């Protein structure tokens, strides 16, 4: 299969009335690395092993909100029993650690390397309570995946996977950046407002099918026909019809009219 | 030579030459805004051409089909035949997607061009007597265009358009007493009925296009019969039309526009994706997708449905379903108002005279204000149809967006309308020719309503001016025949009468008709010839061709653009 990936470029980042974004996204994007940067001088000797490294990272970056033993606190929920999949998803998609409380943690560059994430996962699961493990993703069937997606995911993420607003400023994000494992994790964990789809609802094979379909949505092959306009649908198309096409044609008419012997 | 013979043979039998000579000499005004309607006309041409191609492959049936084709995620899925054939068109028919997309883009631009054309007619008062009938024809065509766009959009039976169809059905159902009966009459059953797609198809490819083509013919015939309006200017009176002849200048210009329209439509069809039905999936009454919008030209109705508060309104003891007011009433009132406008205006102003000269928007501040108000209102409604997209992009609750828009839809139109009235008045009273030339004093003065004397001068019928200095009609013999031209030396205008007359008397009569009261003088021979019309037209045509290829090149390779512009120009 072709490995072209469709990267979601926020189509109107610039136009989205900067104020709201600057207020909400600005601090998250800018502050995340700063808050995360593990002070290397004081805790330098971390690399010794999984357990120690995980514990240190957890103490420095997570404990302030989730509590020393993951028992939770006023600033963050309990992590006991959330499962390896949840930790891997939250940290791997860059949602955690969040620099400060916000309504909906955003996707971003992960703050840690793969090894560090593995160590964190190990540490958090050591709090006990079970929970979903990190799924193993295998190849799935696209047609089944498409049907499951249309029935279960499209109402929130949109048939095109472009995402939409849910309620009160919560959004179901676009699905163009999640890796296969992250998709499977999201299905099993149900981050934020997303419902959990446990194994009673979807078998592992169905999760694989869904994952395969979500991955295919990223592919530029589906943008057969040209620029997808952010896959935002008819209104974006209408905007192009007016601003580009009609604009050009009216300009052409003016030009032709001026050429006439007036 | 063959053409010559053919023409002569036809003429012998059908006596075409007097007709053609008259038709070819018909004069069109040169102002660019007279070509807006042609953009719509040529989009219709593109729609018919591409639509015929689509009809060859589209299967208008809701029977089950198992899809087999290049689109892997749908392989082996059972869908309606309509959806399966649309998928085949998009993925497996050669050039199918290009034509399908071009058809859809043409539909968007068709309606947009009609609207812009209508706006031009409205703001310049071109609908006034004697052209009210053509205004009615135009509004009907707009309505048919909307209907055909909607039926076409719904035919592929994909999830997104199915949601739209369901909404329309619920709007019709909301009509008290007759609603549900209308629906079952129209669909031949409950909402996703088997009859639905075949009926949409017949409406879309036969009934409405036939009606449209018939009305277009009536529309054009009326224009030929009544002649064009024109903007006032030196040498232009209520009795003449100043511009280019149909052949060769105007027809070449118009052909160039046709080339432009086709170029832009096919460029969009090939470069910008529209309505990717494979992503939306086949329609299933149990499924939904979001964000969901209709095409822009019906989005105002959708926006109104979203903005209208969820009130329970009772009429005569019956609960009126929510979609009735924003759906049925708004749509009905909109088109009624459009139909009634020429008569409303005549009733309000008491102006019953026939008009061949156009208003500039400033000449009629109230009409301009009303127009701007209406346009703003509908623009806000269209934006409201995108409430979910706005909410996602801004990350604000959709209810906040709706509430802001609810206020805006009531306040903004009044503000822009008042502003338009103010600017129109200021422009009319001051020396300014453009908005940019207005001074603050002009604006302040415009706050007062017009004085009575001002009002009358603006609308005063144009009087023949027997002693306007510098104006005259020149007549001269041209072989066996006579020609004349109007000349206004101070204004630097010279306008050639477009037809020769067999006698001096007839030439003088036709000059008097166009310029009553202007003195006639006899001159020995024709004035020095203007640049040869064919050559001038050829040059224009060549520049146009360069322009069109430039556009194509610019879309593909931006870099070539500079080269093209500096390239040699044919003489
Ligand atoms: C008069 C103005 C017309 C308008 C505004 C219009 C508009 C549309 C639209 C919006 C679609 C949906 C395209 C899509 O799937 O993305 C469509 C589909 C279609 N139209 Fe038209 N159309 C017009 C005239 C015609 C004519 C004259 C024909 C045939 C002679 C035609 C044949 C078709 C067919 C067969 C389809 C379905 C194929 C498909 O959806 O891919 N249309 N039309």
TrEMBL record, chain A:
Record Pfam families: Cytochrome_CBB3
InterPro entries, per database record: Cyt_c-like_dom, Cyt_c-like_dom_sf, Cytochrome_c_Oxidase_Subunit
Lineage of producing organism: Bacteria, Bacillati, Actinomycetota, Actinomycetes, Micromonosporales
Domain (Cytochrome c): residue spans on this chain: 49-218
Name of the molecule in the record: Cytochrome c domain-containing protein
Keyword set, alphabetical order: Heme, Iron, Membrane, Metal-binding, Signal, Transmembrane, Transmembrane helix
A molecular function (GO) term: heme binding
Signal peptide: 1-31
Species for this entry: Micromonospora rosaria
Membrane-spanning segments: 239-257
Keyword Nucleotide-binding: no
